[in-house]
Amino acid sequence: MSKLLIVGTVAFDAIQTPFGKTDKILGGAATYIGLSAANFNVNSGIVSVVGGDFPQEYLDMLNDKKVDTTGIEIVKEGKTFFWSGKYHNDMNTRDTLATELNVLENFNPVVPENFKDAGIVMLGNLHPLVQNAVLEQMAEKPKLVVLDTMNFWMDIAMPELKAVIKKVDVITINDEEARQLSGEYSLLVAAEKIQAMGPKYVVIKKGEHGALLFHKDQVFFAPALPLEEVYDPTGAGDTFAGGFSGYLAKTDDVSFANMKNALIHGSNLASFCVEKFGTERMQNVTETEINERLLSFRNLTKYEMEIPSKK
Ligand code: AMP
Fold first, then answer.
1. How far apart are CA 70 and CA 110, in angstroms?
2. Band of the pLDDT at 310, cuts 50, 70, 90?
3. 221 has which bridge partners?
4. Ligand 1 pocket, Cβ-based, cut-off 6 angstroms
5. Strand ranges for 41-126 from DSSP E
6. CB under 8 Å to 113, separation ≥6 — which residues?
7. Which phi and psi angles does 255 have, rounded to 5°?
């Protein structure tokens, strides 16, 4: 088992979907990643920042799940990062209504001493300079560095983002972001170009259409489970990243073959995240539910077919 260091926003979100809307609720990339990775009982810790307005009970909830929060700085006089989004009817696309950086604006991350030797580093979505500053503090080169980001940072900090991308092993982004980053429409060509930027592995998330893992000339596909109820896709990408990195930390095996399993675990956990608003579902999903759904995943794509051979 490797230690897992998580970086990302810990936030307030206000969400609108065709099924309803929320006031400020708990959100943030690191929150979803931590809750997801917690299902593998790994030793994980978050580096982030919140304001004095952030309820202690949210930190307690993460601690109860064995997610170490000593790396979450509390700026008493500051306000917590706030994001608001509205989903379209297809639930696959959304408009960002507000992104208020608040305490994130002047954040200098400090990696706690006991996480400087983490084997797996999950650089969740936030400013690429913060992602880079965390990497620089690691005592030794981690076994694997995974980076997740989004169009927001590509729009305002592309050079800084490209500089940190150069140093990571795996990048996880959605299809539109892969196109924006590479300037290519074909995802195959985009993945090739992104590999040339640094990461040896590229994961492209396609929402309800699953996720693709690229490495050299190999491609692997994990479907998303067709679900009856999708209430709120917020955090699905981060939950995926938490499942992916959490599984790799637990198994301590960062081979391509094991990353395929990690992709399935990520998709499996993301399928729970979307069933309720915010983090609610990830706070109470059980091991039995997770394992049952893994079986459904296996059955979804399992088939026996003989490929005719030319005589
Ligand atoms: P996802 O749906 O996986 O893309 O992640 C949604 C989460 O990302 C929300 O909980 C937000 O608080 C957080 N978020 C939204 N915009 C940003 C941003 N620009 N940087 C970091 N985190 C963000």
1. 10
2. confident
3. 212
4. 9, 11, 13, 27-29, 83, 99, 125-126, 150, 152, 234-238
5. 44-51, 67-68, 72-75, 82-87, 94-100, 120-123
6. none
7. -75, 160
Say if CB 102 and CB 83 are below 8 A apart.
Answer: no
Task: Specify the DSSP class assigned to residue 151.
Answer: H
**From the CA of 78, how far away is ligand 1's center (Å)?**
19
| Contact in structure between 10 and 54 (CB atoms under 8 Å) | yes
Per-position b or e across 157-175, b if 16+ CB within 10 A of its CB: beebbeebbebbbbbbbbb
Ligand 1 centroid – CA 140 distance (Å): 29
Question: Tens of pLDDT along 91-117?
Answer: 878 899 999 999 999 999 999 999 999
Query: Which amino acid is present at 182?
Result: S
How many Cβ atoms from other residues are within 10 Å of residue 145's Cβ? Answer: 24
Residue 6 to residues 72, 121, 222, Cα–Cα distance (Å):
11, 6, 23
Q: Which atom of ligand 1 is nearest to the CA of 174?
A: 4
User: How confident is the model over 234-291, as pLDDT tens digits?
Assistant: 999 999 999 999 999 999 999 999 999 999 999 999 999 999 999 999 999 999 999 9
* Confidence (pTM): 0.96
Among residues 299, 257, 245, which one has the least CA distance to residue 124? 245
- Pairing assessment for the beta strands 44-51 and 4-7 based on DSSP bridges: parallel
How far away, in angstroms, is 29 Cα from ligand 1 center? Answer: 5
Residue 187 CA to residue 175 CA, distance in Å, equals: 7
Atom of ligand 1 nearest to the CA of 241: 3
Contact 94, 85 (CB under 8 A): yes
> By the 8 A CB rule, do 78 and 98 touch?
no
Between the CA of 25 and the centroid of ligand 1 the distance, in Å, is 13
